[in-house]
């Protein structure tokens, strides 16, 4: 085997990765905001989330892109971990489409007839169309062409490599040979950071006889295990929700891998039998085995996902509501303005709930939150949100999220003023506050001091409630002034009581303004 053969192998892998990257970027750009919009609205049930993950990956041709986007939305608190997990499970099945494209088309075409025209036409579209989807579709088409060109180069190079590769020795090694195949598949995927590209290399090598079919099946298992590396790397330093999702992805692949290893021979025989009777090749059989592996994972999760979710949630704890540690903010969501703004929104809602709970405590209202602690230093979280906002503002254009980003910054400043009001009111005793406000004003204010209560009100109901509080403040002012005129209370006490009433009215206005941003009616 010559240096040229090894050079062709490296070049083929390079073309493969380049084509895969161009194809994914082009299709993602052509989709525009569709990826984000679909993820946001298509996760109501686990079946819909499963189909969403499958469809998006089949279209974008990159499970990593879909999983990374899903991780980002989970990080930002825009997707719950359990819904996001079913998108990931669906994405695992969707990534099998790449293997089918390679097995049914990529390894059977003449490179000069299909791949080269695709590259040429695709790049002409990309260069000469000024904008719109077709520019990106052209880029993706060129990526397809380069992908096929890389497969052709690899196929030619592997013909020579097969002559010196120790196929018989690995096959004769039995269980050790299978384990070597699993490790090699996982390492290959980790190195090139693409399970789709790894599968393309494995299928190409299998067709040229570099290894036996059963070792090829073990490489497929390893490639599926290796694909968890991307989500694990992305979850480092991420929020608890993102770490939970990454852990679910790893455990799902690990459990499926163990069962697939135990069923290696029967699963391979099924795939080989179907492929053989359909007139397929060993590459077709491996593509089918890859599909069976991921369908097995979905079936296992369909019955055991809830137990897995509970165990992961127990293992990786969320910061308590009263914790000063951010729950949604970290550097991973800064990659996308949408995710960053979503993270800000989620964290501000968390601070808002803390402040409302503090208000209920001041009014001596019954505690209705899960965590009864209310002495957290909210200024720490507000400072962190402000720092995060500055970092997010430097990332780039906000696009359609610009207005919401500005409104969130305004809401953050309102929260600081609300916090000062509430902290001043906490210096008063509960009896003193209730005596100043009166029962009717306390009842009106209590409707504002719960996130669930205020969230349920529409704009008209919020306006009516504010008018009711204003009317209550006027009545209390008149009553307190009458007491002063009649001499039943002294001026110092009335002044203090009027100040309490004024601070509560100002707090009510700020609460409603903040709610209009965080919980738009």
**Global structural class:** mainly alpha
Counting DSSP E segments of at least 2 residues, the number of strands comes to 0
The largest sheet is:
none
List low-confidence stretches. 162-172, 369-374
Query: What string gives the helices and strands in order?
Result: HHHHHHHHHHHHHHHHHHHHHHHH
Average pLDDT number: 80
Topology of this structure?
Blueprint lengths: L2 H29 L2 H8 L4 H15 L2 H13 L5 H14 L1 H11 L4 H18 L4 H32 L2 H6 L2 H18 L2 H13 L5 H14 L1 H8 L4 H23 L1 H14 L4 H34 L21 H26 L15 H16 L8 H24 L4 H8 L1 H8 L4 H5 L3 H28 L4 H28 L3
Helix pairs in contact: 1-8, 1-11, 3-4, 3-5, 4-5, 4-13, 4-14, 5-14, 5-16, 6-11, 6-16, 7-8, 8-11, 10-11, 10-12, 11-12, 11-16, 12-14, 12-16, 13-14, 14-16, 15-16, 17-18, 17-19, 18-19, 19-24, 20-24, 21-23, 23-24
Key traits:
single chain; mainly alpha; 24 helices; 79% helix
Any overview of this molecule?
The protein is mostly helical. Helices cover about 80% and strands about 0% of the residues. It contains 24 helices and no strands. Helix 4 runs antiparallel to helix 5. The longest helix has about 35 residues. It is elongated and about 105 Å long. The N and C termini lie far apart (about 70 Å). About 5% of the residues have low confidence.
């Amino acid at each position: 085997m010559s240096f040229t053969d090894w050079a062709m192998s490296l070049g083929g892998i390079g073309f493969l990765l380049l084509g895969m990257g161009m194809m994914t970027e082009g299709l993602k750009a052509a989709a525009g905001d569709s990826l984000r919009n679909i993820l946001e609205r298509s996760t109501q049930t686990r079946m819909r989330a499963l189909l969403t993950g499958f469809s998006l990956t089949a279209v974008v041709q990159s499970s990593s892109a879909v999983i990374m986007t899903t991780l980002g939305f989970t990080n930002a608190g825009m997707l719950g971990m359990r819904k996001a997990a079913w998108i990931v499970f669906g994405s695992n099945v969707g990534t099998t489409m790449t293997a089918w494209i390679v097995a049914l088309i990529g390894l059977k075409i003449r490179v000069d007839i299909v791949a080269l025209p695709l590259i040429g036409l695709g790049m002409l579209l990309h260069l000469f169309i000024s904008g719109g989807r077709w520019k990106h579709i052209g880029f993706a088409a060129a990526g397809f062409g380069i992908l096929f060109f890389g497969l052709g180069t690899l196929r030619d190079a592997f013909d020579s490599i097969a002559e010196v590769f120790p196929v018989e020795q690995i096959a004769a090694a039995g269980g050790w040979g299978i384990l070597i195949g699993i490790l090699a598949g996982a390492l290959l995927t980790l190195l090139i950071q693409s399970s789709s590209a790894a599968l393309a290399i494995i299928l190409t090598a299998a067709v040229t006889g570099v290894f036996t079919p059963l070792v090829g099946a073990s490489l497929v298992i390893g490639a599926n295990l290796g694909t968890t590396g991307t989500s694990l790397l992305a979850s480092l330093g991420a929020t608890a929700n993102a770490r939970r999702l990454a852990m679910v992805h790893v455990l799902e692949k690990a459990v499926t891998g163990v069962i697939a290893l135990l069923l290696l021979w029967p699963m391979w025989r099924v795939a080989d039998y179907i492929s053989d009777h359909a007139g397929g090749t060993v590459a077709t059989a491996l593509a089918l085995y890859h599909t069976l592996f991921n369908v097995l994972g979905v079936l296992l999760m369909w019955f055991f996902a809830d137990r897995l979710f509970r165990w992961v949630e127990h293992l990786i704890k969320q910061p308590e509501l009263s914790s000063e540690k951010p729950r949604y903010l970290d550097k991973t969501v800064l990659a996308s303005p949408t995710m960053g703004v979503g993270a800000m929104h989620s964290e501000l809602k968390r601070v808002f709930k803390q402040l409302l709970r503090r208000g209920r405590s001041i009014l001596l209202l019954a505690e209705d939150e899960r965590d009864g602690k209310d002495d957290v230093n909210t200024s720490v979280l507000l400072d962190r949100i402000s720092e995060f906002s500055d970092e997010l503002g430097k990332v780039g254009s906000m696009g359609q999220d610009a207005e919401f980003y500005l409104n969130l910054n305004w809401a953050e400043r309102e929260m600081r003023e609300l916090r000062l009001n509430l902290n001043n009111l906490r210096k008063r005793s509960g009896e003193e506050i209730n005596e100043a406000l009166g029962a009717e004003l306390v009842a009106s204010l209590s409707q504002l001091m719960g996130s669930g209560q205020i969230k349920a009100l529409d704009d008209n109901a919020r306006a009516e409630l504010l008018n009711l509080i204003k009317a209550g403040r006027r009545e209390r002012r008149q009553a307190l002034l009458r007491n002063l005129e009649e001499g039943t209370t002294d001026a110092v006490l009335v002044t203090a009581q009027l100040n309490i009433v004024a601070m509560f009215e100002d707090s009510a206005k700020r609460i409603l303004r903040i709610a209009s941003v965080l919980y738009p009616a």
